[in-house]
Each structure stands twice: as structure tokens, then as C-alpha cells.
Amino acid sequence: MKKLDFEKWRVKSPSLSDLDDRLLLINLYVTQFIVLLIGVILLLFSKPNWQAMFSFQMGWKIGLWGVGFAAAVLVFDFTVSRFAPKDLLDDGGMNKRLFGKRPLWHIAVISLIVAICEEILFRGAIGGMIGPYWTSIIFAFIHVRYLQHWLMTGMVFCISYGLGWMYETTGTLWTPILAHFLVDFIMGCIIRYSKEE
Q1: Which residue, 29, 62, 74, 101, has most beta carbons within 10 Å?
Q2: Burial (CB count <10 Å: 0-12, 13-18, 19+), residue 45
Q3: Which residues of 14-26 are buried (b: 16+ CB within 10 A; e: fewer)?
Q4: Over the stretch 2-22, which tens digit does the pLDDT of each residue have?
């Protein structure tokens, strides 16, 4: 009797090198759409106060909170990057592939889409149900490329917890959305425009 060859049926997860630029962008946009869809569905079931969640009542303080938190994250990230060994900060080249050759407008679009979609799901929907601590654990786990490096996983957890705390404190999703956008946009620009070492 002939043995079945299960190797040909095995589902293999693609590595970053298997993805061309077009497929990488499609993957990014599709996953962000799924994140947004899950967030909206969860919010529809939890019935939050949409007006308060997306309130601009704080006015200019939204900018102050968002810019202040983003600045703190960037200073912390630059400090860690300066003193930590490079292998502890390795994301497998994902961010370099994602931002390395993009024009400025596209870095802004990617950063804005990611910030809105992830904050609606994680701070708005999940955070409203289980709080910032458990939400941050989930958030760190979905950033799977960092899980093999304890320092990166810890940094993602801390940033996520800070975003959750900021949302709970201010009561509007615009503060973590702004902070998330600024961190991603500035880091994307640094990756794009920095000289190779």
C-alpha cells in the first residue's frame, strides 16, 4: 500500500522574503480591514457611547495628549535603540520592507490607516471590555514578529498599555489614534530617510 505524502498538503507560512512589495501591501491593507471590521462588530455588540468615544470636546488637549505621548514613546525608543544590542531590536526586516521605499504620502496613509483600525479594535472595543492590561497582552501577541525578542515585546506591551491608559483618562479615541499615528509616521520616516549604516 502506498503511503500518503502529507508534505504536499502542509500549509506553509510565507517568510518575509517570499512576499513581493505588492503582496506585502495587500496583506497590510487586508489585515487592517479585518481588524477594523472585528472592532466595529465588537463595538456594535457592546453598544458604547459613540459620541463620547469620538468626541472632540477636549479640543487642543487632544493634540497635547497625542503629541506628548508620541514624544515620550519616541524618546524611549531612541534611548533603547542606542544602548540595546541590535539583535534584541530585530523585527525581521518587516518595517524596513514596509517603509523603506515608500513616498512620504504613502507612509502617512499607512500610519493613519493602522492607527485608526488598531485603536478602534484594541482601545475602543477590546479595551472597553477587558481593560488596558489584558488588551495590551493581546496587542503584544498580534505583533508576532516581536515575540522572539523579549525587549520588543515588552516595549509593544508598554506602549499599548500607555495608549489604553490615555484613552481611559481622556475618554476619546482621538488621543491614542493621534499618538499611534505620530509614532508610526515618524518611525516610518526615519526608516525611509535614514542612511544605511
Answers
A1: 62
A2: exposed
A3: eeeeeeeeeeeee
A4: 666 656 655 555 555 667 888
Within 10 angstroms of residue 170's Cβ, the number of other Cβ atoms is 19
Q: Find where cell 501577541 sits.
A: 141
Helices assigned H by DSSP within the chain: 21-46, 50-53, 60-83, 94-99, 104-119, 127-142, 150-170, 174-193
CA–CA separation, 31 and 12 (whole Å): 18
Q: Look up residue 155 and give its three cell numbers.
A: 516595549
Closest of 156, 170, 177, 171 to residue 73, by C-alpha: 156
87 pLDDT above the threshold of 80: no
**Report field, pTM of the whole predicted structure over 0.70:** yes
Q: 151: Cβ–Cβ under 8 A, 6 or more apart, which residues?
A: 80, 84, 88, 89
- Report residue 131 as a C-alpha cell: 481593560
What is the DSSP track for 33-71? HHHHHHHHHHHHHH---HHHHT--TTTHHHHHHHHHHHH
